[in-house]
Amino acid sequence: MKKIALVGYGYWGPFLLRNILDNPEASLVVVCDKDPEKLKIINRRYPTVRTTTEYRQVLQDKTVDAVVLATPIFTHFKLARQAILSGKDVLVEKPLAMNYLEAKELTALAAKRRRILMVDHPFLFSDAVHKIKKILDSGEIGEILYLDCVRVNLGLFQKDSNVIFDLAIHDFSIIQFLLNAKPKSLVCEASTHFGHQYDLAYILMEYADGVTAHVQVSWLSPAKMRRMIIVGTKKMIVYDDIEPTEKVRVYDRGVKISRSTREIEEMKVGYRSGDVWIPKVETIEPLAVMIAEFIKALTSRKTTVSGGHWSAEIVNFLESSTKSAQSGRKIIFNHANRQKR
Ligand SMILES: NC(=O)c1ccc[n+]([C@@H]2O[C@H](COP(=O)([O-])OP(=O)(O)OC[C@H]3O[C@@H](n4cnc5c(N)ncnc54)[C@H](O)[C@@H]3O)[C@@H](O)[C@H]2O)c1
Fold first, then answer.
1. CA dist., res. 287 & res. 20, Å (int)
2. What is the pLDDT of residue 338?
3. Residue whose CA is closest, atom 40 of ligand 1?
4. DSSP for 206-238?
5. pLDDT class of 260 with cuts at 50, 70, 90
6. Of all atoms in ligand 1, which is nearest to the CA of residue 161?
7. What are residue 90's DSSP bridge partners?
8. Nearest atom (ligand 1) to Cα of 78
9. What is the pLDDT of residues 293-328, one digit of tens each?
10. Which of 110, 152, 188, 254 could potentially form a cystine with 321 if both were Cys, beta carbons 3.0 to 4.6 Å apart?
């Protein structure tokens, strides 16, 4: 039984708490929040779980195996670093850190101290995303031509992050998982309509072999949309995460080009419109799967999904998108295209 401390009981903390309590391999021993009002809820509902406003006490507690951080993004680097230095394994809420430098430092420190460092990128634990990955890997849709992602809703305006860090992070993690590749370059246009953070952004990423991914994110949309279109040479996929059950649709549709043999060559475009099939998607809560993966990693001593290194790359692309929007420049990356977990 792994003994867990949850740090941060604001908006997201309660979701983590429920899933830690539900996991038979985990025991939630302490909840820490610097706001004592938040802890009153724990004391009332879960009297056997200890509470503290002092993070130091969590780090000094020898019974705690691992710390789960659900605190604001700007605290992730400092709190995760202290936890690793105190010999604790760490699960950090997305994103791993505010910038790539900090993310890399945490990853290196965790490796040096032989600590588990994992990040909650929730879509990596969703059955819909795993079904899509299986379809892509099977070659059913052919070569991928492009991906188009829309993730928009009204709010929630964040204090310490822009809409790229808040929403595009999900698309970046899904794309990195599906393609198992990093972009060669990216360019981002973003704007601020309210407050001081970007609340609307359009990011275009280029991958090897001419594959492109376009990500649109906004806190200023009247309707909530979570849609990803993946177009292949043979078939096309539409993933709509708002759909309660039929989230993934595979369209046997495409374009057929033939050239006439006449003197002046003419391109003929034919359209193929075949069947649509809907793979069955399990309705298991991704957070439950994520917590189970973390507990497994604590025993096996290795992360299989969203480890520190993998998640640091996501921070790199978030930071680069923000820099591209600020400078109006395309960012070119100097890294090998395939990547390890
Ligand atoms: N996985 C997801 O889909 C998802 C969704 C929402 C939020 N998040 C992430 O969860 C994290 C928290 O977001 P939130 O919306 O819950 O924030 P929040 O501001 O609602 O809650 C943060 C809590 O942390 C506490 N806190 C801050 N500093 C602390 C410290 N040093 N020690 C102890 N407690 C401290 C605050 O008092 C607060 O109760 C962020 O990283 C965010 O990106 C993830």
1. 9
2. 45
3. 72
4. E-GGG-EEEEEEESEEEEEEEEEEEEESS-EEE
5. low
6. 43
7. 67, 117
8. 31
9. 999 999 999 988 899 999 999 999 999 999 999 999
10. 188
In angstroms, what is the span from residue 194 Cα to ligand 1's centroid? 22
* CA 39 to ligand 1 center in whole angstroms: 14
Q: Which residue has the tokens 């900090």?
A: 102
Of 310, 301, 341, nearest to 116 by C-alpha is 301
Would you tell me how many other CB atoms lie within 10 Å of the CB of residue 204? 17
Contact at 8 Å (CB) between 58 and 51? Answer: no
What is the C-alpha to C-alpha distance for residues 112 and 232, in angstroms, rounded to an integer?
42
Helix axis angle, 286-300 relative to 13-22, nearest 10°? 60
If you average pLDDT over residues 274-299, what whole number do you get? 95
Of 19, 39, 71, 285, the residue with max ligand 1 atoms within 8 A of its CB, to mutate for a pocket test, comes to 71
Q: At residue 282, does pLDDT exceed 80? A: yes
| pLDDT, the chain, mean | 94
Query: What residues does ligand 1 touch, defined as CB less than 6 Å away?
Result: 7-13, 32-35, 38, 55, 70-73, 75, 93-94, 120, 122
Give the Å distance between the CA of 280 and the centre of ligand 1: 33
Please give the radius of gyration of the chain, using alpha carbons only, rounded to the nearest integer: 22
26 CA → ligand 1 middle, Å: 21
Q: Ligand 1: which residue has its CA nearest to atom 33?
A: 33
DSSP string, 238-259: EEETTSSS--EEEEEEEEEEEE
Nearest-angstrom CA–CA distance, 33 and 83:
15
Q: pTM above the 0.70 mark? A: yes
Lowest mean pLDDT among 75-84, 249-258, 281-290: 249-258
Give the tokens for residue 41. 């809820």
State both tokens at 325: 């929007």
What distance in Å separates the CA atoms of residue 120 and residue 307, rounded to the nearest whole number? 9
d(CA 140, CA 51): 51
